[in-house]
Amino acid sequence: MSLFIEYHLIQNFAPSNLNRDDTGAPKDALFGGHRRARISSQCFKRAMRLHTNESGTIPTQNQSIRTKKLKRILEQKLAILGREGAGERINHALSAAGLVVKDDNKTEYLLFLGEGEIDAFSELIDQHWDKLAEVEASTEKKSKKSAKAAIPTEIIAQAKKLLDGKKAVDVALYGRMLADLPEVNQHAACQVAHAISTHKVEREFDYFTAVDDRGDADETGAGMIGQIEFNAATLYRYAVIDVPKLVANLHDDTELALQAMSAFTQAIARAIPSGKQNSFAAHNPPAFVGVVLRHSSPFNLANAFEKPLWPKLDSELSALSVAKLAEQEHKIASFYGDGRDQWSYLDLSGQWPADLGTAQTHLDKLADWVADQVRRQLEG
Fold first, then answer.
1. Which residues on neighbouring strands pair with residue 28, listed in sequence order?
2. Spatial separation of the C-alpha atoms in residues 239 and 292, rounded to whole Å
3. How many CB atoms lie under 10 A from the CB of residue 379?
4. Full-prediction pTM beyond 0.85?
5. What does the pLDDT look like over 188-218, one tens digit per residue?
C-alpha cells in the first residue's frame, strides 16, 4: 500500500532574513527564469525539530539530538548514576560501536542520535563499568587501534546493536547517514522542499546606525554603522511523508507514527527559523495550510508559480497564491490524481475552493484530522 501525506503552505513573511547565505544575504534561487526568495529545507527542518522537542508533543525518549558532544552528554548521564571519571570508558564503548572520539573529546562529525540510543550507551557503560576499566588499564599509553582490540567481544556485540534508532521520531522522519557505519543509516520517511517565493524578489538593504548612549556633547555622529540585507516574500512550502516508511522506521509502532504525524502538522505550521529575528521579528503564521492524503504518488505544486505572480492593488499576494495553488491542484489531479485522495485545510485567505476538501477552524483540528484519516487508512 502506498500512502503519502502532503503539506502545502502559503506563508507571507514581513521584511526578514530568516536564512542567510555565506555572505549574510537572504538565500534566493532562480525559478521559472526569475529571482525568488528561498529558505532552505534544512533551515525549516531544524526549526521544526526544535519546536517539536520544546513543545513536548513527542515523549523525551522518542526525541533526538544532533551533536559532536556525545561524550559530554554521556559523562553527565553517568554522573547522575554516580559514575564519575567515565572519560576513557566512554571512548572505549563508542569505539566498540565504531564511533571515534577525537582528542578534543568530540566525535569526528555531527551524529544524529535518538535519546534512547544515548541512554542505551550510558546503560552499557554502567553495566560493564569494571570491564571497561580493565581495558583502560591494559591499553594505557597504547594506540586507539590497540585499545579497540582489547575490548571484550560481548561489549562490541552489544554496542553494535544499540544504533537502531530506538524509535526516535526525528531520525525516522528525516533519516541519517553515519559515514563510518553505513549499516545504521536510516532512509528518511519525509521529504521537505526548499521554500520559494511565489513572486519575484529583489534584495533590499537596511543601513543602520547605533548611537553611544554616553556620548559627549561633541560626539553627534553614530557610534557605529552597518547594513543588513533582507527581503519580504510570500512563500510556497511543501513537504511529504511516506506513511508506510515512517511506520517501518518506527519499528511498526503505529501509535507513535500517528503521534509523529500530528506533531509534524503542528510544527510545520508553527515553527519559524530564528535567523535575524531580533532585528526583524517576522513571526508570521501561514495564510494557508493544506494537507492531502495521496494514494498514487506525491505531487509538489510549486509549478503553480513557475510564472511569478504580480501584486494587485485589490488583492494580497498570499490570497493570489492560494487561488493559484488551487488551480494547479485541479490541473494536476485531473491528469494524475487518484479518486481516493483527500484534502483538508486551514485557510485564512478565503481563496481555497470550499468543495476541495474539509475546512478546519483551528490547527489542532487539522492535526487531529491527519491522525484520524491515517489511522483509518492503516486499519483499512
1. 37
2. 11
3. 7
4. yes
5. 999 999 999 999 999 899 999 998 898 888 8
CA distances from 132 to 85, 124, 127 (A): 12, 10, 10
Q: Is 332 exposed, middle or buried (0-12, 13-18, 19+ CB in 10 A)?
A: middle
Do residues 42 and 306 make contact, with C-beta atoms less than 8 angstroms apart? no
C-alpha cell at 208: 543602520
The per-residue pLDDT for range 280-318, each reduced to its tens digit, is 999 999 999 999 999 999 999 999 999 999 999 999 999
Cα–Cα distance, 319 to 315 (Å, whole number): 7
- C-beta of residue 136 within 8 angstroms of C-beta of residue 92: yes
Q: Are 256 and 228 in contact (CB under 8 A)?
A: no
| Phi-psi map region of 257: left, alpha, beta (phi>0 left; psi -120 to 50 alpha) | alpha
User: What is the rounded CA–CA span in Å between residue 130 and residue 126?
Assistant: 9
Could you identify the residue written with the cell 537572504?
26
Three-class SS string for 187-208?
A: CCCEEECCEEECECCCCEEEEE
Torsion angle of the four alpha carbons 10, 13, 18, 22, in this order, in degrees rounded to the nearest 10 = 90
Three cell numbers written together for 27 = 538565500
What phi and psi values does residue 33 have, to the nearest 5 degrees?
A: 85, 10
User: 285 has which bridge partners?
Assistant: none
> How many whole angstroms separate alpha carbon 206 and alpha carbon 185?
44
Residue carrying the nine cell digits 495564510: 287
Amino acid present at 176:
R
Specify the residue for cell string 519499528: 251
